[in-house]
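Researcher: We're teaching a course module on how sequence relates to structure. For the next exercise, students receive a sequence and then see the predicted structure as tokens, so they can try to spot secondary structure elements on their own. Here is the exercise chain.
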Amino acid sequence: MSIGFLKGDIIPLMPNTINEIKKLNLEIFFEKNIAQNIYIDDEEFEKLGAKALSKDEILNSCDIIVYYKFNYNDIEYIKRGSILIGLFDPFVKKEKLKLLLEKQLTIFSLELIPRISRAQSMDVLSSLATIAGYKAVIISAYYFNRIFPLLMTSAGNLLPAKVFIIGAGVAGLSAIATAKRLGAYVSAYDVRISVKEQVESLGAKFVDLGLFSQEEKYGYVKKMDEEFYKRQREALKEYLKDVDIVITTASVIGAKAPILITKDMVEVMKKGSIIVDLAVEKGGNCELTKYNEIYEYNGVKIIGIPNLPALVPYHSSFMFSNNIKNFLKIIIKDGSLNLNLNDEIIRETLISNEKVI
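Model: And here is the predicted structure for the students to work with:
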């Protein structure tokens, strides 16, 4: 059985994963210049036994095709009966997914990997969120007109930046840790009271607004009604008056991101403040966020850069490719596809098996 890895903002194959994948009795192919953006030449892959092909050759010939984010423009070129692995955005792209039925494809959508201990090494969303949280802080520090740490100098004392993280999932915790390392005063809020201890263990203050939500399966946040979000915004508005940087990470699986910061809330923030909206790809947590734009409103800089992990391509690719390698170990046995639906990981990620979505 052959497997082909395609180029993307983040690379699904790195040289360090090739030997482990070869042990699965798979013939490994990769798109030419796959790692050019992180300065790894094709020769590094080839000397380990992988072979370079064009993208068309991979789509037309490989049994398994691995993407970072699936390109729906490739549908007509993919070999009938292929196995596809990658990020498919299945809740948003339902109609486009139906076009894949005609090709009798088996599709594994990695967004759906369950948050269980056995699947941690395959959890691509956690890997990407870790990088995104880090990068959000670095970007905010770049655009902020002051420094993060407290400094006592002969020229006067420089007070620390006040960083507020909304949402303490993987991205939020990564942002907290990064901001603390840079010396900021960090506080965080989450609708799940269960994360309070994790926030405090990183040295941040947990902001208790008295508004909490129940967790759904695998620890995801349950979508709440508009009345809940209205009360939440009212409570947050007071807190935003005294912070310098806000990083929003709130997301609900399978739904548009909740609006947590409205126009009138931005208007009470200090001039020179920063908002980094990590939920921009799902519509944004800030009402004023513009997709792929950085602009000012009332003296507040609002940053809506999507796909932040792609701005740290080497380590994002390192983590993502390891996730892929570990996932392949579950679905491939002795060089053949293992569709054991009693396995929770396989069952949850399989969104299409030839003719059924």
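Model: If you want an answer key for the exercise: The two ends are 24 Å apart (CA to CA). The longest helix spans residues 124-143.
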